[in-house]
Design brief:
heterodimer, A: 147 residues, alpha/beta, six-stranded mixed β-sheet, two-stranded parallel sheet, 3 helices, B: 198 residues, five-stranded mixed β-sheet, two-stranded antiparallel sheet, 9 strands, 21% strand
Chain lengths: 147, 198
């Protein structure tokens, strides 16, 4: 029974901790994408089933939703490229972002992230403006319906 | 001389973990994981006045009118649906079945033989769904209707794929899928807005 004496537990080796953390790091670097614009409006997107994944390249987002900042009123606002804009600004802003990305408008996809509560009239105004800007490829953003 | 060879001391690597954690947290904060997903559509170019005059005349039987009122009542042809009829559990809702029937039914839209690829030809419906919504309609319902219509077209694509290649659309290879996509376009026309006060 002499062996049952108190033995000190050796310290846990932490030499593999960096390896583990680096592995996590690489996973996140590969699996995520950079956040490019900060949302200024809150969009509660509708759900749909027949949606496809969109290619990030050449994607331009247009948000229509409640402004996050107080004092902007309750009316739904349009956000494009980090700024809240009016319907009449859309043409210029769309052309701007196509120039910035160095892509022709025909290769770009305008992703419309529209709030559930928005009206079709508002959407139609935006679509008309896009047609005038000759940006014909659009997509209606939606969440995946699970049931 | 003191310049005798000395063994280089090992670099203390205990802070490596801290550095890695810092990087990890940085990436966690600045990136997002969500994938953008949506329903793709192509807008028609703006028609000038002359073109509008000679608007493409489609045969009556090849057009299925879908009207969404501001209260959310949906008219598909002569049948009426409520928002509750949309997106029911199961594969088909009543509404997308009706649209599919319009595309497939022998006495409904016109079918024309088209070559999916040289040597394989299928009868493709000439049907167009014309979607009209009131300006006051909620976007949620509008998108649900779009979803149902797209579903009908996707089921139709599946049927054509099976006919042409003996496989479901999702199992086709890139080229075949492209052929089917070209042969069976999603013909949903979003109506030209008009002044409703008049």
């Amino acid at each position: 029974m002499a062996k049952k004496g108190k033995k000190e537990v050796p310290a846990m080796s932490t030499s593999s901790l960096p390896d583990i953390v680096f592995m996590l790091l690489f996973f996140f670097m590969a699996a995520t994408t950079m956040r490019d614009t900060d949302p200024l409006v809150n969009v509660n997107m509708p759900e749909a089933r027949e949606i496809t994944e969109l290619d990030k390249k050449g994607l331009v987002n247009i948000w229509i939703g409640q402004p996050l900042q107080r004092g902007e009123g309750d009316a739904l606002k349009i956000q494009l490229n980090d700024q809240i804009c009016e319907v009449s600004d859309i043409q210029d802003l769309v052309h701007d972002s196509s120039a910035k990305k160095g892509m022709a408008l025909s290769q770009m996809l305008i992703n419309l992230r529209v709030d559930k509560t928005a009206t079709v009239g508002k959407l139609t105004d935006v679509k008309q403006e896009l047609r005038r800007a000759e940006a014909y490829s659009i997509s209606y953003a939606a969440k995946t319906r699970v049931h | 001389m003191a310049k005798a060879k000395r063994k280089a001391g090992e670099i203390n690597s205990s802070s490596m973990a801290d550095i890695a954690f810092l990087l990890l947290i940085f990436f966690l904060v600045t990136t997002t994981m969500d994938v953008d997903s949506g329903m793709k559509r192509t807008l028609p170019p703006i028609a000038d006045n002359e073109q509008q005059q000679q608007d493409v005349e489609l045969k009556q039987r090849n057009v299925l009118m879908v009207n969404v009122s501001k209260e959310g009542r949906i008219m598909v042809g002569a049948e009426e649906y409520m928002p509750a009829d949309l997106n029911r559990r199961g594969d088909h809702s009543r509404m997308s079945r009706e649209v599919l029937d319009f595309l497939v039914g022998a006495d409904r839209s016109e079918k024309k033989a088209a070559e999916v690829e040289p040597g394989i030809s299928c009868d493709i419906s000439q049907g167009v769904v014309s979607l009209k919504a009131d300006n006051e309609t909620k976007y949620n319902i509008y998108l649900q209707v779009q979803d149902e219509l797209t579903h009908a077209f996707n089921v139709y694509r599946d049927m054509v794929s099976v006919q042409a290649y003996g496989k479901q659309f999702n199992d086709l290879n890139e080229i075949q899928a492209g052929n089917i996509r070209k042969a069976v376009p999603v013909k949903i026309s979003e109506a030209e807005p008009h002044d409703q006060t008049r």
